[in-house]
Design goal:
With 331 residues, the protein is α/β, with parallel strands linked by helices. It has eleven helices and twelve strands. The longest helix has 22 residues. It binds nicotinamide-adenine-dinucleotide and thymidine-5'-diphospho-beta-D-xylose. The site of nicotinamide-adenine-dinucleotide has 30 residues, from helix 1, strand 2, helix 4, strand 5 and strand 7.
């Protein structure tokens, strides 16, 4: 198995859980290490995998590795993943997210390996707080920012690769993940680490934006369920049904970390911050016999706070750089 972006948050968790639970796979990772801090995410498993630093847009490099190692399946996580970077560096998002995926499809076309493409629920746009319909694989695409537009562009190529050439592909659209090794630019790690350094968390806008939160381990089992039982050419939505607004997440973390509920600063919203996402994973649950297991959010959040508390050396430097950038953005 070749895992692209395997040094990132979800990729590194996927590599670790695959090594632990699915020993039949031998794993290679390609990652461009766009943030030098990603280097450490695979430290504890580096002797059990073949790691190559490189760009997924480099088709010849990926093809050569696929041939050399006898790769049979590619799980494609590599991406520019942060909304706040997307409108600052749009061409990086187009390059990696669209061209990187097109490049892998070329590898699939020439070698016949299977590709699982990891997309996001954000491609479906935003829901109103009182909408009763959640995102399904048939929901029309309505991306509202450069990140989701780039992911949507990639998805269209993957789907066209199936209709045009019957390439062996599957796609998943997951909701917001949380767990260890998540970059501190993202909401939950930023909130926890801000409290650990004695600062105040920031809520964008009204704090009423809603996300559906899933533990990264459940995302990983969902991908394995699709690899095992999913149908080629199909799209699966992955979610937990656990919707929470940003304010209630901050309040829970404040409570778990012994701070008053108003220990928070409200800052200007990011442009076009989608109001709400909600997923309907029933196709995945039924066809692939999958269900999320790490669903006790309060307990998971307490464990995650401990993880960040005990792994300060992992995030300290990254935090300094991230907060400098947020400072420039005014949030
Ligand atoms: P991440 O930013 O932590 O990891 C992305 C990894 O891709 C990094 O290690 C980075 O170095 C690597 N990468 C970037 N450009 C590359 C390139 N050109 N070539 C090779 N490697 C490159 O992001 P993440 O949160 O782990 O997200 C992984 C995937 O899951 C992304 O495709 C994202 O769109 C998707 N996703 C994320 C979430 C979430 O909540 N984090 C939810 C749904 C879907
Ligand atoms: O300090 C903060 N305060 C705050 O209120 C930060 C960093 C974020 N927010 C808000 C903005 C969003 O409404 O929290 C929400 C979540 O923000 P992010 O963690 O940046 O995630 P989001 O933009 O929802 O995108 C994430 O989920 C979908 C991932 O980064 C994507 O890669 C994935 O596809």
């Amino acid at each position: 198995m070749l895992v692209t972006g395997g040094a990132g948050f979800i990729g590194a968790n996927f590599v670790r859980s695959t090594l632990q639970h699915r020993p039949e796979y031998e794993i290679a990772v390609i990652d461009a290490l766009i943030d030098p801090h990603f280097t450490r995410n695979l430290d504890d498993v580096k002797d059990s995998i073949a790691f190559r630093q490189g760009d997924v847009c480099d088709t010849a490099f990926v093809s050569a590795l696929v041939e050399e190692l006898g790769i049979e399946v590619i799980v494609h996580f590599a991406a520019e993943s942060h909304n706040d970077n997307a409108y600052l560096f749009p061409s990086r998002f187009a390059h990696t997210n669209v061209m990187g995926t097109v490049s892998l499809l070329e590898v699939v076309r020439s070698t016949g390996v299977r590709l699982h493409h990891v997309s996001t629920d954000e491609v479906y746009g935003q829901l109103a707080l009182d909408d009763t319909e959640a995102f399904t694989p048939d929901t029309p695409y309505r991306p509202r920012n450069y990140y989701s537009a780039s992911k949507a562009g990639a998805d269209h190529f993957v789907r066209a690769a199936w209709t045009q050439f019957q390439l062996p592909v599957t796609i998943s659209h997951c909701s917001n993940n949380y767990g260890p090794y998540q970059h501190v630019e993202k909401f939950i790690p930023r909130t926890i680490t801000e409290l650990l350094v004695g600062g105040r968390p920031r809520l964008h806008g009204s704090g009423r934006h809603v996300r559906e939160w899933i533990h990264v381990d459940d995302h990983c089992t969902a991908i394995h369920a699709i690899l095992d039982r999913g149908r080629l050419g199909e799209t699966y939505v992955v979610g937990s049904d656990d919707e929470r607004d940003n304010r209630s997440i901050v309040e829970l973390i404040l409570e778990l970390m012994g701070k008053p509920s108003d220990w928070v600063d409200y800052v200007p919203d990011r442009p076009s911050n989608d109001l709400r996402y909600a997923s309907d994973a029933s196709k995945l649950r039924t066809e692939c016999e999958w269900m999320p297991l790490r669903t006790e959010f309060r307990k998971e959040m307490a464990g995650l706070i401990d993880w960040y508390r005990h792994n300060e050396s992992w995030w300290w430097e990254m935090k300094t750089a991230v907060e400098r950038r947020y400072g420039e953005l005014g949030r």
